[in-house]
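The data are quoted verbatim for completeness:
=====
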Amino acid sequence: MGRFTGLIGILLILGVAFLFSNNRKKINLRLVLSGLALQVFIAVMILQVKPVERFFTFLGRGMQKLEGFAKQGADFVYGGIASVSGSGITQNYTAPGAFVFAFNVTATIILVCVLVAIFYYLGIMQRVVAGIARAMNFVMRVSGAEALSNVASAFVGQVEAQVMIRPYLKSMTRSELLASMSGSLACISGGILIVYVNMGAQHGIDLAPKLIMASLMAAPGALVISKIVYPETEISPTRGRVKLQVKTEYSNLIDAISRGAADGFNIAMNVIAMLIGFIALIALIDWCLLKAGHVFNPDFNLTLDWIFGKLFYPFAWAMGVPAEDIGNTATLFGQKLTINEFVAFSNMTGGKVPIVTEKGMLIASIAICGFANFSSVGMQIGGIGALAPERRKDLAQLGMRALLCGTLASYLSAAIAGILATTP
């Protein structure tokens, strides 16, 4: 079975979506099949077409260089701080290879947000998003609003993507709204993607092609799953057309750079706060679970990782993860869903929850590459609700369905990539 075990995973994922569908008779089979075909096409191009694979590898090296540029800015601020290397040697923060998570990661996020703001001011971002959205609209026959939102989510944050469709939010159908929320949860912004690429590079792991593929596959994947869970039964105002109506909010280039840096700082501080809070909470819960487990058996070390490993084991196995990695991959699935993807990526790349096979790394990386977790649902309800207050009730009602769709979309991409992978 080996390589084709992932087919079981695809059937399982689609089956779960079908089980939670609110109107099974209205599922658009053409949309589902075209979306799956688009995902397969993206995976084949990146995994098996050598020129394309080399291009994305080259792009990944460029992403890694961004960290070096960001560090030059951070060095001015943090240059006098000493850090401890992996070998235990104390060195200046500016030394080659020195890495302090709070400094390196936040600097990279700020730089990428500045670049996105510049591209946005120049109109480049809008043109790229609109072009890809038109192609997806042509293939899948989805509405313009949901195509734009899902494609934008692969470049900018989950709430920022909705800004691009702000004029349509009031009139979007509930099916469109769920599709847009699902896409934002299944995708990951360019800034965070680059952070994960560099986290892997610090430990000699090349994640760039895998994560770029995950981000590209997530847009059609989220539409496939969301349209099974909540099929379209209304007439969309943007049906059959893609028109981007976003005007830049920046007065000039300097304003774009300044506000991009400020936005990046806010995102970086939010990441740091979430990590401190969640990791501390995990430590507390693990301590309580450990004590509870020892009541029944002194040798039973009950932890959240142990629980996640059992709960998500069937998905990891069905998606084609090699036997030696199934337990740890399942643990990462649980950490990503219930805590956040930062913790999962940090544990995977840092070796706390190691993945030892190339295929296991491919599947795990794609499956946890997305914003689908409980805290992100709250961020979406608050963020999109501020853009369209009259839709807040719909957002709240669709929140958990969006989490399900975003999670299944990432799993679907991972299962497809696992089947097409040429390495064990």
Q: What stands out?
A: The first strand starts at residue 82 and ends at 84.
